[in-house]
């Protein structure tokens, strides 16, 4: 964890956003980054559309990470077994997010878009 403390928020957000783009490929749409700060500690958020269906909010706060689905006035947390950021675990985080989101989308839609494996 000490190594993460020496990284600036802008480095971390680039690193994590790039991992999301690599993992999801054409299933992810524009990532919008906001609330980036190093004071009093590193934290940031980013938002993106996944599977042309859900707006996902990602949050990083002092190493803790999480996601939720944005439904406008409220959101729904997406549970994940990875609660703390580590670059080697972000692939697992994305995998679990992908599995959870795909459960909410009809297979016919995924198949039509070429996203059903």
Give the low-pLDDT segments: none
Number of domains: 1
The portion of residues assigned to helices is 25-40%
The general outline is globular
CA-atom Rg in angstroms:
14 Å
Report the structural category: alpha+beta
Mean pLDDT: 90
Distance between the termini: 36 Å
Task: Work out the strand percent.
Answer: 25-35%
Largest beta sheet: strand ordering:
1-2-3-4-5
Number of strands: 5
Number of helices: 4
Q: What is the element string, with H for helices and E for strands?
A: HHEEEEEHH
Largest sheet: 5 strands, antiparallel
Provide a quick synopsis of the model.
The chain has a 5-stranded antiparallel sheet with strand order 1-2-3-4-5, covered by helices on one side. The relative contact order is 0.16. It has helices at residues 2-5, 9-24, 90-102, 107-113, and strands at 32-37, 43-50, 54-61, 64-70, 75-78.
